[in-house]
Amino acid sequence: MIKKLIFTLFIIVASINAFSQDSIPKNYFRSPLGIPLFLAGNFGELRSNHFHSGLDMKTQGKEGFKIYAAADGYISRIKVSPWGYGKTIYIDHPNGYTTVYAHLQQYKGIISKKIKQYQNEKESWEIDWYPSDTLMKIKKGDVIALSGNTGGSGGPHLHFEVRETESEFPINPLLLGFDIKDNIKPTIKSIVITPLNDTSYVNNKQTPQRFLAVGVNGIYKLKYGAAITAYGEIGIGIETIDKLNGVSNRNGIYSIELSQNTEIIFKSEMKKFSFGESRALNSLIDYKMYLGKKIRFQRSFIEPNNHLQIYTQHKNNGVIHFAKNDKNAFKYIIKDTYRNTSTISFPIIGEYNKSQITPISKPTIDTLFSYIDSNYFENQNIMIGIPKDALYKDLPFHFSIADTLLGAITPTYFVHSDYTPLHKAISVSIKVGRLSEYERSKATIVHFDRRKRYYAKGGTWRNNYITTKSKAFGGFAVMIDTIPPKITPTNIFANKNMSKNTSITIKIADNLSGIKSYRGTIDGKWIMMEYEAKKAKIFYTFDNLPKGKHNFELTLTDGVGNTSNVSIPFVR
Questions:
Q1: What is the span of the domain harbouring residue 445?
Q2: Domain ends where: 114, 147, 175?
Q3: Of the candidates 12, 221, 452, 493, which lies 20 to 30 Å from 385 by C-alpha distance?
Q4: Taking the alpha carbons of 174, 176, 181, 183 in that order, is the dihedral positive or negative?
Q5: Do residues 348 and 213 share a domain?
């Protein structure tokens, strides 16, 4: 009896573990849209500094389609922001998953009512709210919102995610049984072979070499029958995309498998990932080639401090050693989520010709930083702190100083190169000469990229140093911002009769440190003004304003505290 009970408990525990770790709830969720599903982007697609964490569902180029709850649950989070996901709903479901609906135009029903109450209590349009699990219960198929284009969206669509509630890991929604048509095989565009150290060569060169691919019906080969020779430690990568029926968008790949002489030496699968590791996409791709040529190829070799969980199988981290006269046959098998498959095969011969090698120039190395440890650099008037796990591999670090740029009060300090990606933010502290308290309050560190574009990073003072954080290497200097942000009313002026207008619209701009906050009032009472950052405007939609004379006021504050104000009387 006891043995039978133990066995039963074992089966129950095993079943729970299997469900939580491997089970995919097929056909549990309904579509969040009531129109045929076509995708502008899929799960795991390569984006700037991150993997795409859901499905971008097309809405026929329009806003206002009903958004339906994908399953029973409760509203666990509401976020409203001018950036990122814009207006967003999170629903927790009893099966251990959370669905996310983003870039919404407006909320509906009780959700809309509760959000307005919360925003008015906080006197803030921007919110990040975690309601109690009993406040807003939702049934499968309830209309929760209308589709839109808010936040960082580049056009009308619904961004839809499914996450594990406990871990918050997004999972691939295409594994869940949604009705999305795809019988198109992935496209293979090129193969890239990379020398991995100073004694490695590809076709007698020490830089990554790209070989174009051509193919029909999923069977690819190298264009022009390109021959590849290699010597030393080598990494292989592939440039590949997927397409779905009925749309022209470039989507991400589900599975990449590389074999050497029939032995699998690398495999990745895009089932799920964590947001904390998503930035390691910059180690998965050749980051320098992407920044310089806008080519994203996926490496089939793994840098030492790249811990992406998409890697399911590898030998020696995918690194291959070539000696002279080695002959190896390689084959890629590329699959999308629906198992449409493309392949490419190519040989690589171990060979190099010393007389044909042209040495490449490299910058002077100031020090070697280890990816295992935290690192620190100090030179003249700047201090750099690189935390543990910020680097994907050991870094031959270099540093230089350039002349002071127009508008800066310090030289420009070039901290390594922004062609090298970072997983965590570094600290940058710059020493500044004598400034008044007013000037210190208006100072900001600016970051310069390789194209000499600059972005304010803010900063805090300690003694004579101003310090900020940066998620990129590059140039750094200090500038002073004393110019208030600009307010430009677009549909209101003094004493205008606004009876035929549905809203007050204002264009806003700032020269350097960026918009930090704004506050609008009518007759001294706070009003809820929405901020569309990508259109650089804020607006208020009239709501139960009594007829008569009124006064609209707006205060706008930038990142270093410069403020602008307008006061406009009007009639309604």
A1: 367-480
A2: 175
A3: 452
A4: positive
A5: yes
